[in-house]
Amino acid sequence: MPKVVGTYLYEVVDMLNRAFYDASPSNASYNNQVMEHTSIGMKAFALQFGASFAGLTEDELSTKILGNLGVLPNAGLQAALKDYLVSVGKANVGIVAVQLGEILSGLENATGDMAVYKAAAVAWNAELNASFLYSANPANTVPSPAGPLGDFGLTLPLTAGDDAISSAQTSNWGDTILAPVSGMLSSADAIDGGLGIDTLKATLAAGAAVAPTLKSVEKVLITAGSGAEFSAAGATGLADLRVDAAAGPATFSGVGLATTVGIQNSGAGGALTVKFAGAGGPADSANLVFADAAGDDEIIVAGVETLVVQSAPGTVAATTVNHARITAAQAEKIVISGVQALTTTVTGDKLSVIDASAIFRAKLDLTLAGTQGVSIALNAQAAHKVTLGAGADTVYIAGLAGMAAQNMDISTAATLAASAIEVAGFVSGTDAIQLTSANPAAKAAPSSSELASIAASSSLLAAATLAATTAGANKAIAFRYGADTYILVNDGAAALGENDSLVKLTGVTALTDASWTSV
């Protein structure tokens, strides 16, 4: 099951508590239940757990369990479970609850008739994860309130005056501190979030500068007016700091290197300047995130040698592509990962490595604005586009031509072109490209007449089809078509197929043999 933490031993305990009580036990009670499960085994423990509900009818048990699993209303399912409990005996209801929990947990990616349970499966797995984290925390000495975990944290509004919130005023469940009007958050405010994952959401006026004292407030979201500055110098325990829909340029200062900094849900665009506290050493590293940054945003970072950048969905699902620039004067290496497509321009005169091999099934459109040579690593799981800068750049593309690579759409010339990984700004004899496939694909050696025939094809699809048969199975062939050079990497079949891969070198009319390798 897709559980973040814990093992099956714990999952059974979590499932039974959530299925019957719709709540999570205290830490002490949870530990006792886990010990009992370990001692007598899953079957006996589930039977024992369900026996506490022997006074309910089969109809009542069916309604309780399915309701707590989040799959009601569903009259047909409710009646079917009632009949099943009559058939197997309601004494076995504990085992039935575990079985249902396991089945629902595995339906996150269901298709066909079972697809109607996908949303419930996602919610159920999230509930199990949250339940484990709650009950495994020694600070939680009482059971959680009934209902979804996380819905019972307090919402604490700030005022226009000087606010002081202590941990005694918070719930320790994960609270939200709100300052929705400019002026409510000030440097005089002192907030202790206590236990739980607490979030501060604040709006700053244009030109405002605040430096509140924060303790155990793990997330901060700032809606920033143009020129606003938030200082994290007085924050301890801050894990995630983001601009949320900036109206113009903003600044985060005094930020610890352990804090992830980012831009989310932005439509207007703007530059976020991040000043990390303690940066300036020879090997500093910082984490950035873009989440539905749709306004051609920019993050400017100084004094950090390694940046780890994540492209992620936001909270309002405003876009499927993040558009954001990265300017990092001292950065030597940038690592890009994530599940959302990213269009970015990277500027940094000291940059030597961009590793984007961990951005999967999402397209990367990367432009280099520096003048030095950069090594760029990609995977072949999306139709990426890279625009190289000046200097001798090297592009590494892994995972070509195989089941793990993106499927090429060979239905038309246009769809094939859209499937290609594009490298623009490539200079033959200066830049280099190295291709790695699932099975080693040696370079083919076509004759000049064969290359001429490919170049004279009526369409890119026809050219690629001829190139595939000319090269043969598990071979890579470079050929010119139109004003560009293409490299086709064949899989184990000689004919052009969806598991082959195509790389386009835009504007390259002649490719020297030394400029590309295939392994």
- Sheet with the most strands, sense and barrel status: 14 strands, parallel
The percent of residues in helical segments reads 10-25%
Distance between the termini: 37 Å
Report the strand count.
32
* Total DSSP helices: 10
Estimate the mean pLDDT confidence: 90
What sort of overall outline do the alpha carbons produce when their principal axes are compared?
flat
List keywords for this structure.
flat, disordered N terminus, alpha/beta, 519 residues, 14-stranded parallel β-sheet, single chain, 14-stranded mixed β-sheet
In words, what does this structure look like?
23% of the residues lie in helices and 31% in strands. The protein has 519 residues and is of the alpha/beta class. Strand 29 (475-481) and strand 30 form a beta hairpin. The two termini are 37 Å apart.
